[in-house]
Design a protein that fits this description.
The protein has helices at residues 29-39, 56-65, 78-84, 90-95, 114-124, 141-152, 164-173, 185-188, 233-240, 249-255, 257-264, 272-280, 285-288, and strands at 15-21, 44-50, 70-73, 87-88, 100-104, 107-111, 134-137, 157-160, 178-179, 194-197, 221-224, 244-246. With 289 residues, it is an alpha/beta fold. It folds into 2 domains: 15-113 and 256-288, Rossmann fold (3-Layer(aba) Sandwich), CATH 3.40.50; 115-250, NAD(P)-binding Rossmann-like Domain (Rossmann fold). The structure holds 2'-monophosphoadenosine-5'-diphosphate (ATR).
Length: 289
């Protein structure tokens, strides 16, 4: 595969954005935004910024003072950054977390784009998010935004979590969200059109998600938000049963669109070439040989 290759040159007018995380070295966002910057020959940069939690406020104000157009925030800053925003989007307010910040006139506006990214990825795979009931596994930050986005689409949504109190807390935050006991998750699949893994189980170097798919209907779509590995044990098990699957990398790509468009004034495309470029970085070196 041949990717865009040119050496960007920054002028004194370059637009700047970046990602704050602690750590940030694992983030694929610089690669992803870097691809779009090169594709569109933009005079701009998107940089990784390792900022410890106790320096987040200082870091954000520093970027603002330096004329950055905005930034992404990733773990562990999503909730702390929410509290530092001057204005918030509806989705950020609802989930009490932000991942995309816009700086304007010395003020910070925060948005949460994970849920919209998840829905866009489903649509890319030809899946209608409201086609039938959805079961969401997990009740962390990512699950919150996805549950809210699915409810907004008009889907009937249930949540289940290993620690039940967190699922119940999420249901209190989002009216209309039903709670299913963790022990009943496999049995509940008989009634679902969509299963979403929004836990971190199945990530490389972590235990796989424990769920039997034997009760699933043949039309169940199985989506995972984990994208390292690209094909998680859950997706592999679903494919082995002939079920349709939606991988997590597309969500990462789609959640980035809104920030890039606002910072660099071009709405970028999520397409095969971008997918391959980011995916290439996720394949272990030994399987690339
Ligand atoms: P994030 O904000 O990225 O979602 P998080 O708040 O740490 O991260 O949430 C991780 C989610 O994965 C939680 O729902 C967690 O379940 P608990 O609330 O019981 O901790 C879930 N999770 C992590 N490992 C899991 C495993 N092996 N099996 C089931 N759920 C798991």
């Amino acid at each position: 595969m041949c990717f865009v290759s040119y050496m960007p040159t920054l002028s004194g007018r370059a637009r700047l954005a970046g990602i704050l995380g602690w750590p940030v070295a694992h983030s694929r966002s610089p690669r992803l935004h870097g691809f779009w910057l090169e594709r569109h020959r933009i005079d701009g940069a998107y940089v990784p910024l390792a900022v410890p939690p106790e320096q987040l406020g200082l870091g954000l104000r520093g970027l603002l003072a330096c004329g950055f157009r905005g930034c992404n925030v990733t773990l562990p800053h999503k909730e702390a950054a929410y509290a530092l925003c001057d204005t918030l989007s509806e989705s950020a307010r609802r989930v009490h977390a932000v991942n995309t910040l816009f700086f304007h006139n010395g003020r910070i506006h925060g948005n949460s784009t994970d849920g919209a990214g998840f829905i866009a990825n489903l649509r890319d795979h030809g899946v209608n998010p409201a086609a039938g009931p959805a079961l969401l596994l997990g009740a962390g930050g990512a699950a919150r935004d996805i549950a809210a986005a699915l409810l907004d689409e008009g889907a009937k949504v249930s949540v289940t979590n290993r620690t039940p109190e967190r699922a119940e807390a999420l249901a209190r935050l989002l009216p209309g969200l039903a709670v299913i006991a963790w022990k009943d998750r496999a049995a509940a699949l008989a009634d679902q059109a969509l299963l979403v893994n929004a836990t971190s189980a199945g990530m490389a170097d972590r235990p796989p998600l424990e769920i039997a798919l034997s009760r699933a209907s043949s039309s169940l779509v199985v989506a995972d938000i984990v994208y390292v590995p690209l094909v998680t044990p859950l997706l592999a098990a679903a494919r082995a049963r002939g079920l349709a699957t939606v991988g997590g990398l597309g969500m990462l790509l789609h959640q980035a669109v809104e920030g890039f468009a606002a910072w660099f004034d071009i709405v970028p495309a999520v397409d095969r070439e971008l997918f391959e470029f980011v995916a290439q970085d996720l394949i272990p070196a030994k399987s690339r040989d």
